[in-house]
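Duplicate of earlier report; Alpha/beta hydrolase input re-posted below.
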Amino acid sequence: MLSIRRLAVGLAALVVAVTAMEAEAGYRLAPFKDSLFDYPGLLSGRPEDPFVIVDYDKRRDIHRRDKVWERQVHGEYVSLRPRSSQEDLTLKANGRAITYMRVGRPRGAKAIVLYIHGQGGNRFQGMNDVSFGGNFNRIKNLMVRNDGLYLTLDVKNFKDRGAADVTALLRHYSAASPGAPVFVACGSMGGALCWRLAKSPAMARKMGGMLLLGSTYDESFFRSATFRGGRLPIYFGHGSWDKVYDWKKQARYYEQLKARAPSYPAKFVLFETGTHGTPIRMTDWRLILNWMLAAGGR
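Output:
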């Protein structure tokens, strides 16, 4: 029988080994309700592949998942733990007040996720726990449970003013969490601001990745230093029945990106029969953010 001393030494060595492995792997998001939010099925590819077609089914993914269709998800998809740190705030910058919300660690965060809404949206959209199948609640929980910070804001326009406000908010919280990768997720027209951030060398250096959710593309990105550097992971999520932004044009842009830079870290997930809001409902936050962390060498 092992002595207590030898057992203690062995356990200590095991802890050191596990700690070393975790350090080598880097910061990653731990599982949270993965069985409910994993892709329900794939028509093409594997979850980790660069181009995937997801078997989206409105009857399953809305009618069965939601208690009230497109308004309130069933309770098992939601945890209200993040509400204890949720705040509705104002930042004074650019000569005006920027209204925003936050959940998680305002200082010393290990990662920051910002959601930018599209036309007609507001800061409350990305904080709604029960809409979009509970997927915003999941990203809130992923940040709170992994020492991260989640932000939403009111965007007044999708040009210079909007870009200036987003930049001010991210600079404010990046300064409070030095070195934390910033992931910017943009729904619909919000993508115009995602691309502006990506083309800004100063902001791109802070970013760990950007997620385009039923959004648009930007040809001028190919001329940017960020694209030439090849280090900013990009996720394209799109529904094949999207009537606002044609998925084929977005997929063509993705193909051009990969043709110009085959090793560029980019993924395209097509939700078969999905509509404009489907990527917000169905994107696997944990899968995509962990891929971005690994692709960015973090």
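The chain has one domain: 31-295.

Merging into the original ticket.
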